[in-house]
Amino acid sequence: MALTRAKKAEQVEKLASELTGATTAIVGTFQKLTVSQDFALRTVVRNAGGKYRVVKNKLAARAAQGTGVEQALQGLKGVSSLAYSTGDPVALAKALTTWVKDNAEFSFKLAIVDGKILSVAEIQQLASMPGREELYSKLLFLISSPAQRLATVINATGRDLAVVIGQAVEQKKFSEAAAS
Does domain 5-129 have CATH number 3.30.70.1730? Predict the structure, then answer.
């Protein structure tokens, strides 16, 4: 079914508004993808905090003008789909990479993260990185670890002194010294 100019303009406008805040876009292609596989892919992308669309190349290029993912959507050829996100790029890459392992019908073309275009190999590397939440937890551990050690050492001095005094009291060393 052919699209009218009005429908194309509407699609371009809608996609442009969605791409305005996108910092990550992964462009893929597929052949013979079933409806259930497409539904599963959309669910995986949604759970990773992204959105997924099958796009017409020229309309996607037009919609991406002036956005952070403009470079990735220029000059696309063949069947293209677009997964994009404003959140964690690693989460989106991990979700898609995991899904692609089980579904050979889908393959990556390229990606763009914060204005830098990534190849297929770099998408795989991105997917192998720890996620944002994991990095935050590691950073907090590294920050709090020295403080925890310092508190333990400071408490150890007082605790050790209390143990020595307690042992001296048990052995009645203070009462002999006071009696003499």
Answer: yes
